Amino acid sequence: MSDSDRAKNLADDLAACLVALDELGANIAAAHLDAALNALRRQFNLPEEISTTD
């Protein structure tokens, strides 16, 4: 598996965790995870998904 594929899989996993944090109301943790997720996507040129949560 290439690094790009591994990064895509990790981004998918982190996005699912982001949803779970939002549902828990863990806003500060969610903000930090969102920043890390965006950095990962930029580094590996992955498409940025539009967030559907507030």
Textual characterization of the structure:
With 54 residues, the protein is mostly helical. Helix content is 72%, strand content 0%. It has helices at 3-24, 27-43. α1 runs antiparallel to α2.
Count up the helices: 2
If you compute it from the alpha carbons, what radius of gyration comes out, rounded to the nearest whole angstrom? 11 Å
Shape: elongated
Mean pLDDT: 92
- Summed up, the domain count is 1
Alpha-carbon distance between the two ends: 34 Å
Low-confidence stretches: none
- Number of E strands: 0
Strand content: under 5%
Major beta sheet summary = none
Instruction: Specify the oligomeric state.
Output: single chain
Q: SSE string, helix = H, strand = E?
A: HH
Range of helix content: over 70%
Strand pairing plus helix content: what structural class?
Answer: mainly alpha
Features:
54 residues; mainly alpha; 2 helices
Short description, anyone?
The N and C termini lie far apart (34 Å). Helix content is 72%, strand content 0%. The chain contains 2 helices and no strands.
Summarize the helices and strands and which ones pair or pack.
Layout: H1 3-24, H2 27-43
